[in-house]
């Protein structure tokens, strides 16, 4: 299991784990966009797709990312500290994705498409970095350190819903970008897509059973606000060190999902003006990690590059980053294109680790320091912010 409480076999499956695909051929360009219920999608899965579709879809035009559920079988064999990947399962997922993609390519229906983008502010997540005089981090007591705890900081957290329709108004696909770590699930020793299931249910309640591609936004430092202690020891810890995060019980989780459902349903009551989708395109830039001042372990296990990939769908652009990107970068990425709405997507295939800000690197904490061992990294430099901004500018310079 990827990042779950145990790497043993689980005994419960809640709902379905899905992969949803969208293929568009505008006559000149073809793009394949895939969302997979997993913590990460490793290079093995992506390389299998690229190889199988060679001659049909260009490598740069295959966009695949994980919903980042923490409660699914591991699909990345380069991060054993986060979960052991089963080779047979990975090969099975790769085969099924390849078959689904080939079926889409071979069954294209010629039709005019329109696209309807919606954006709304969501309140389902809270920032999880809090600097304290006395903090517990990594099971150690530290002074003047950043703990994984609720922060009073608040910045707008924008979510996106994009619906594609045929000329007669029939919905054929919905794309949803929302930024919140899929944690706090009660009874965590089970396979579940977490809140991605709720997102798909809301969308399909209006559009029947269509592909709903759920993408994780820039949620590297965001998660549900669940802090109620569950026992006396928890209350003592809270009194001594302040609020800390806890898993939700069933009633708390249902209430949280209901708030998400209401936000989604409320936003979908709006009627955006449809825009004709005339052309699609995609670009992929690979940046060596050392160029971003990120140091890997000597065993070199794991991705060696950061992938920046954009997919243009008329008035909407998906911008995928192969990292767990923190929320502060969302505004920067949304500003990269003046003529379209940019949807920031993290956990693109071959995720290398967290992408923190320079301030986070200087302050320490999980995202910039304590998580490195799980990704076979040794150091992230405080130059990361400038290096990433430069890589983004170069990517969009190449796209134009």
Structure description:
The model has no long low-confidence stretch (mean pLDDT 90). This protein has 400 residues and is α/β, with parallel strands linked by helices. The protein contains 9 helices and 22 strands. The longest helix has 20 residues, at 87-106. It has helices at 43-52, 87-106, 195-207, 232-241, 250-268, 330-334, 358-363, 366-370, 384-399; strands spanning 13-14, 19-25, 30-36, 62-66, 113-121, 126-127, 129-137, 140-148, 158-166, 171-178, 191-192, 212-216, 222-223, 275-277, 280-288, 294-296, 305-313, 316-321, 324-325, 341-345, 354-355, 377-380. Helix 3 runs parallel beside helix 5 (250-268). The strands form 8 sheets. It has a 5-stranded mixed sheet with strand order 12-10-9-5-14, with helices on one face. A 4-stranded mixed sheet has the order 15-17-18-20. It has one domain.
What is the structure about, briefly put?
The protein is an alpha/beta fold. Helix content is 26%, strand content 30%.
Shape: globular
Give the strand order, joined by hyphens, for the main sheet. 12-10-9-5-14
Mean pLDDT figure: 90
Task: Tell me the number of structural domains.
Answer: 1
Distance between the termini: 41 Å
The class by helix and strand makeup works out as alpha/beta
- Our estimate of the beta-strand percent is 25-35%
Helical proportion, percent range: 25-40%
Question: How many DSSP E strands?
Answer: 22
Uncertain runs: none
**Radius of gyration computed on alpha carbons:** 20 Å
Counting DSSP H or I runs of 4 or more residues, the number of helices is: 9
For the sheet with most strands, the description reads:
5 strands, mixed
